[in-house]
């Protein structure tokens, strides 16, 4: 009877040490994975911003065609002379 109690106590102590070791290992892995997740989230947001900027530039010709814009050759401005402006 004493032998069975000692053997079971030894087994439970070994199992306890194994579980504590496994729990500690999971805590370290969790911290490492959280650091990786933060890095990936930052990289993802920067790539998303870059993609939106590039997508907007690709969309301009289609948008211009939809709005019936045409290319201009030269630009000329209307010049207003001082003598022709109405005064009160």
Explain what you see.
This protein has 88 residues and is mostly helical. It has a domain at 43-69. The protein is 74% helix and 0% strand. The termini are far apart. The model has no long low-confidence stretch (mean pLDDT 85).
Based on DSSP secondary structure assignment, what is the total number of beta strands? 0
The proportion of residues forming helix, as a percent range, comes to over 70%
Kindly report how far apart the N and C termini lie: 120 Å
Residue share in β-strands: under 5%
Morphology: rod-shaped
Major pleated sheet: none
Q: Helix count, per DSSP? A: 1
Q: From N to C, what is the helix and strand string?
A: H
List the helices and strands and how they pair.
Elements: H1 2-66
What is the gist of this entry?
This protein is an all-alpha fold and 88 residues long. The chain has a domain of 27 residues. It is built from one helix and no strands.
Q: Can you tag this structure with a few keywords?
A:
mainly alpha; 88 residues; single chain
